[in-house]
């Protein structure tokens, strides 16, 4: 059943109070819910959501209802005759958390009861108006065996606890803030707790608690530090203060996503909480920091102000991702953070936007909303908020968010309300930006430049074009902020920018807004030819089409004072070379391209030594080539093995040209003892980059020995993991013993075992039977999403050569897993189908194989989730 945005109707009943009693027994759980309802219109039937609930009894105003008084229809409970005044409804239902492998609603994870209600999981716990615009006050009482489940948690404040007889106990929690059901959470388990506290800007003391399985307690400190940093940051940057006396995080091993912002009781995938130098890489540490921040920030952007309906998902997700990106940029390096965020945007979101799965940031219809927790809603949504931030400027943006939070506190609102508040606070018209939410696909921004030496003027002609798509035949022109600077070729300095018609120059960096089919801007007082630095910091989520010369790109790599744009220039140059190489390989020629390659290698050799000294993290980023997935978006017909071949050839060329440099750098930066700070992280990433190039060079045997030594001597996971990966990917003789050692060493650390699976699943030099072997391993299971993803999703998304092997066996393998998984966890099954999003553009042989496999899958009985995604993939 398809739901449409245009059909939105306000709820017919409000729910003032919810009283939940959750009685946990070994074989089942009883949920007694008492709702205080108020009709909003006369003579309307009450329709509650409920899925997989065994209804025991139903009372309306304390009167037992008989089966004639209500109907159970599919996923709804309908009561036709309800009073026209406020009334109470009590339902008792039986549920089976131990059988809940979809991990939605109340479920068991390693002996711990926990919940995931967003978006529509509450209906698997109790009958309810399970929609985000019904806000209510929740009181939750949990009873359970005292020994098995000493810890009983729910949202809000603990108001009572005690003995419940027969070896059981109870705890009652009350949430003083009204909330929609998707923010409900509860936990029952035997958990250890790291405690701390935070004093808010008005001097209130907040108790902070992170609950984990006892043996994970030593891995919670980084999450705690991140939490405190986030709380302070949100006060300082957005003026947002935390509002309860307690904030809890619980880590669970079985979790479909990263984490969930339930009011006062965030529930996290262990992968986004646990961090320790011995078990977690630097990237892992950064992920914990950003997810802790993200979920904390939702307390305002999501919880205090929530979404009217699920079409508005990006209202909270886009804004909160933007906030967590800003926070992370303030922690380590702002330009490296921006590079990483843009890499995800370009590799994942642009690909989604160009695929049959493309949808607007605010979708117009869905069958299963779980399918819309996408890179488009999250990442492109964040980019829209970033553009508004860029256009308004820091202070005006803050004025806007202040108004948004105060105007809509306690409400469930729309994306329009957000943009309107930003506009109203600054008396500006931002309505043109709404179109970014309404149409899919990535705009292409084409730029032409012209320098007039006589007039000393420099003209930019900019046009935009958004691809059309089924349902969106005539995309509108969008407001595209273009942040730019112009560099004098001789001095290497940015020049002052004065547009024709202006009386004086206005700074050395400006934002132009392109909002028409085609526009021109002319800068005057331009004494010499200049090199333009366009779309600085990626000021808009667009494809930039500007035919700069190789020399200009090399110039920007060296001289741009915007670190992000140095990286972007490098990427453009690599892309240009790689596309030429791929075309050569497609025509069965040698991949290498003479002059451009020489220019690149000479250029890199000229500035890398200095850059590595000044900013090792940026140097490492500048040396990372565009990914295979990114390149696949740039060719008309995709042959994944040709793309991989070209990439490898370019890597080898760089590796051999700079081998001595990489060796010296590797030795110089070789590990000092571990610390976690920005400089040390930068050094580790640079050292890893040098090692991985050395492994591609003709000196690979020597490099393998270095990697093996690094593996042995490592006192932290970053160093150990990069060495292991290097050994495995380079097919070193030492690889198998390192893998065996690694497994033994970390057999009790589930997250590390996940990474052991992942490094093997992403090995392009493995064979499909090696991957099948991984699935046959005793530690592999379909029922834990992290473990499942560590093999199947890693293989499908990060091992393109093998996944796309020409005989279709990789496709068949993944499709089989999807079919199997769909019966237990539809959300994850459906998500795995994303690996097929480029199938229509594959070269013929692979395309036919993919089509065969997908069509076969479509013949099976499927969940709504998988059915919807598969249909979107297969329809023309
Ligand atoms: N709101 C969560 C977050 O982004 C994501 C939860 C989504 N869960 C799901 N099952 N789709 O922080
Ligand atoms: Zn979120």
From TrEMBL:
Required cofactor names: Zn(2+)
EC number: 3.4.11.2
Domain Peptidase M1 membrane alanine aminopeptidase: 223-436
Domain called Aminopeptidase N-like N-terminal: residue spans: 18-183
Domain Peptidase M1 alanyl aminopeptidase Ig-like fold per the UniProt entry, residue ranges: 442-547
Known catalytic reactions: Release of an N-terminal amino acid, Xaa-|-Yaa- from a peptide, amide or arylamide. Xaa is preferably Ala, but may be most amino acids including Pro (slow action). When a terminal hydrophobic residue is followed by a prolyl residue, the two may be released as an intact Xaa-Pro dipeptide
GO molecular function list: alanyl aminopeptidase activity; metallopeptidase activity; zinc ion binding
Domain Peptidase M1 alanyl aminopeptidase C-terminal: 551-874
Described purpose of this protein according to its UniProt entry: Aminopeptidase N is involved in the degradation of intracellular peptides generated by protein breakdown during normal growth as well as in response to nutrient starvation.
Family note: Belongs to the peptidase M1 family.
Protein name as it appears in the record: Aminopeptidase N
